[in-house]
Amino acid sequence: MIALGLLALVMLAMLLAVAATRARNGTNGIGTQKSNAPASAVEVLLRRWVAAGLLDDAEASAIGDFESHRRATRTPPRFSPAIEALAYVGGVLLTVGTGMLVGRFWDDMGTIAHLAIVGAATLVAGVVGGVVGEDDAVTWRLRGFLWTLSAGGAGAFAGLFAFEVLDRIGEPVAFATAATIAVVSAAFWRLRDRPLQHVATFVALVVSTGVLIAWIDDVNPAAWIGLAFWILGVSWAAASWRLVIPPAAIGFPLGVALTLVGAGVMGGRYDWLGPIVGLATATAWTAIGIGVNEVLALTPGLVGTFVFLPWTLGRFFGESLGAPVIVMLSGAVLLVIVAVLWRRRNDGARIGDLWSGHLGGITHH
């Protein structure tokens, strides 16, 4: 069964890679070019500008010839999507197989051997990630992947050290693991501003924050964890918006989502606090999204409204209103939001302007 599963995984990766290669090369069969291919985006724009009188036919033809020549002479990538997909699948299979092999003899090894194995794997992943370079998109994606594995290995080393050497269990081990991943990921992120290191740092920081609070206050941690998540989310979103934490297109939605998660966690202890904070937070993000035409604030705000509005109505008015009325009111509020968005659209406002300007442009710097 394991062999069949691995074979299916490899075949799926190969099929996806071949499909991606064909889509990129514009083929619909093995070595067969598409006939009557649709016009490229450049050709569509040129026709529109000629029709509007911004360009004449000669200028449009010259621009089209220049772009066609540029695409024809562009240096092809060193690695095709098929090779890249196979490399990742092979790396995962090698890691899993090595882990299974070591697991058979793990109990017979000593603490030093355990730490040496994990430390060596961590060091190899980090060093290889550092030397692969960033000549093209494939290599910098590979570097991000290897550095993420290295950060995870460093966290495993720290957790193993706390468990086997310091004789700790529970929250101390979890905190040592998550905090180490956060520190190492942040160091890699500092070296190279890449989305994967950003996400790894953020997730590890969130986990370590929650574990630390649960470690300090094991009687009533939910409310404090939720509050910490909410504060961290607001701070992260604001710092991303101010371009302090790049790339903003990654950091801002992560922060927004964490504020809503934090509000939900608060409700685990105080069932009246979670829906109130959650609905207020979702409303604020929705208002910001509408006000500045930012889809990365509007989308999670609407999702949060969809979750927290029925929760709030049910918690405070459930017995008097009943489920049907609560559903009706929730739908009415969402329709009002849609009407506001539609009116702004008719007035010429476009949701997502900041994505192409303020937030979206950050990823290209």
Structure description:
The radius of gyration is 26 Å and the shape is flat. The chain contains 14 helices and two strands; from the N terminus they run αββααααααααααααα. The two termini are 47 Å apart. It has a two-stranded antiparallel sheet. It is mainly α and 365 residues long. The longest helix has 29 residues, at 137-165.
Question: Could you name the key traits of this structure?
Answer:
single chain; 365 residues; mainly alpha; two-stranded antiparallel sheet; 14 helices
List low-pLDDT spans: 20-38, 348-365
Q: What general outline do the C-alpha atoms trace? A: flat
Strand neighbour order, sheet with most strands: 1-2
Beta strand count: 2
Largest sheet: 2 strands, antiparallel
Work out the helicity level.
over 70%
Give the C-alpha Rg: 26 Å
Tell me the strand percentage band: under 5%
Question: Secondary-structure element sequence?
Answer: HEEHHHHHHHHHHHHH
Give the N-terminus to C-terminus distance in angstroms: 47 Å
**What value does the average pLDDT take?**
77
What's the layout of helices and strands?
Layout lengths: L1 H24 L1 E3 L2 E2 L7 H11 L5 H16 L8 H25 L5 H21 L5 H29 L5 H21 L3 H22 L4 H21 L6 H19 L6 H20 L2 H27 L1 H24 L6 H4 L9
Antiparallel strand pairs: 1-2
Summarize the structure.
With 365 residues, this protein is an all-alpha fold.
